[in-house]
Amino acid sequence: MSMQTFDASRTDAAWTTPRFPRWLAASGIWLPLAAYLVMAILYLLAVPPLEGFDAVAHMNAINFYRKERRLPLFDRPTGDFSYELIAQPPLYHAIAALATAWLPYDDADQYVHESVNRYFPERSQRQSVVLPQMPAAVNRAMLVARLVSLLGGILTVSATWLWVRTALPDQRWLPTAVTATVALNPLFLFISTSITNDAWAAAGTVVVIWLITAAAARANTPWFHWLLIGVVTGLAVLVKYSVPIVAAPALLILLQYGRHRPLGRFVQIAALLFAGAVLTAGFWYGRSTLLYGSPIPLDAMSTALIALLRPALMPLAEVWAILPFLFYSYWGLFVAIFAPDPFLRTAQWMVLLAVAGVPIGLYRAWGAAVGKLIWLALL
User: Fold this and answer.
1) φ, ψ at 161 (rounded to 5°)
2) Which of 4, 36, 205, 297 would you label with 45, given CA atoms 20 to 30 Å apart?
3) What's the pLDDT score for residue 218?
4) Looking at the DSSP assignment, which residues form a beta bridge with residue 336?
5) Distances from the Cα of 246 to the Cαs of 250, 252, 256, 347, 378, in angstroms?
6) How many angstroms separate the CA atoms of 378 and 265, rounded?
7) 363 vs 2, 31, 282, 354, CA distance in Å?
8) Rounded CA separation 47/53 (Å)
9) Mean pLDDT of the chain
10) Predicted pLDDT at 117
11) What letter would DSSP give residue 132?
12) Could you give the CA distance from residue 323 to residue 329 in angstroms, rounded to a whole number?
């Protein structure tokens, strides 16, 4: 694999040669996206609306914003209504609440609570039941919430292709191959058609990485472009508290960018990204700091949610025992199992083969610049 540093001219040229016309290159994004949409529709039809893990809590977090039209407090009554109001930032739930504002409320939170399967997991493998008396407006609200999640899935699939295409312009079909591993991932198909913010968390992460890569690939990106990327980053960190980890790969990209630019310019870009993020996410994390003394107030969260309390760290032996599940967790294991065992074992061997290919890629890139090795490690 030929790893490329940021070079706008190479990015353009690799996709406009006569042997590889632009329309054919562009078709690479539609193939996995079409396959994803077909499979996602099948998942929407086959999986009950509240069957996703935490779907009941996520739906009632949406119902809280529909009903109360205010930001939640981190206290026991809020946790009783929905623990996701405390465990998650508000963006996905707020978007879904806006998308369902046209529907009557019809005591939606009560019907959602009553849909919990009391026999799970001891006597039933279903987490939820479908109530025959469920009002039509509540059913429509749940469908809209799933479609909002699906929109996050579409963003993830599209931005994955765009990022790989931008990062490795000489690898003509690699964007399609990488995107297919996302689009046809059983776990991703499940969560992106469930009532959850997970698909939007993935979307926010990959969109930010793509935008930063594209901006770094241009020689003279205007300052307001970096500010706008920061605004998008702020929206991304309003989806899930784990999304700020996107700063790690973003820093790698900016460090490579900084090797060819003065340090002052690098600092300016970082400041613009941070300022943009504050513009969109500052209200939430600033409010938490003012009310609870921390942007992510774990103490207040654990007080409101007893389940978050951990009396002791997990023993090392127990950590070691669950490590084999890491092979499966990306493809089809998230609390429950979403894919048959033969598929998971095949995916495990695919991962092992990919890991075995890393030294080969390093060997081929050994004579390249340090930045190319950073890209290989990042991918």
Assistant:
1) -60, -45
2) 205
3) 82
4) 334
5) 6, 10, 16, 25, 12
6) 23
7) 11, 32, 44, 15
8) 12
9) 82
10) 79
11) T
12) 10
Question: Which residue has 């409010």 as its token pair?
Answer: 287
Tell me the pLDDT band of 2, cut-offs 50, 70 and 90.
very low
pLDDT tens digits for 84-134? Answer: 999 999 999 999 999 999 999 989 999 998 888 787 777 766 778 888 888
Q: pLDDT > 90: what percent of the chain?
A: 46
The C-alpha atoms of residue 241 and residue 365 are separated, in whole angstroms, by 36
Every domain of the chain and the residues it spans: 8-320+328-378
User: Exposed e or buried b for every residue in 222-231, given b needs 16+ CB within 10 A?
Assistant: eeebbbbbbb
From the CB of residue 330, how many other CB atoms can be counted at a distance below 10 Å?
14
pLDDT score, position 22? 57
CB 56 within 8 A of CB 112: yes
Phi-psi region of 59 (alpha: psi -120 to 50; beta: other; left: phi over 0): alpha
Write the pLDDT tens digit of every residue in 285-311: 999 999 999 999 988 888 888 766 666
Give the residue carrying structure tokens 């939170």: 109
For residue 358, what are its two tokens? 């890393």
At 107, which amino acid appears? D
- The Cα–Cα gap between 131 and 106 comes to 14
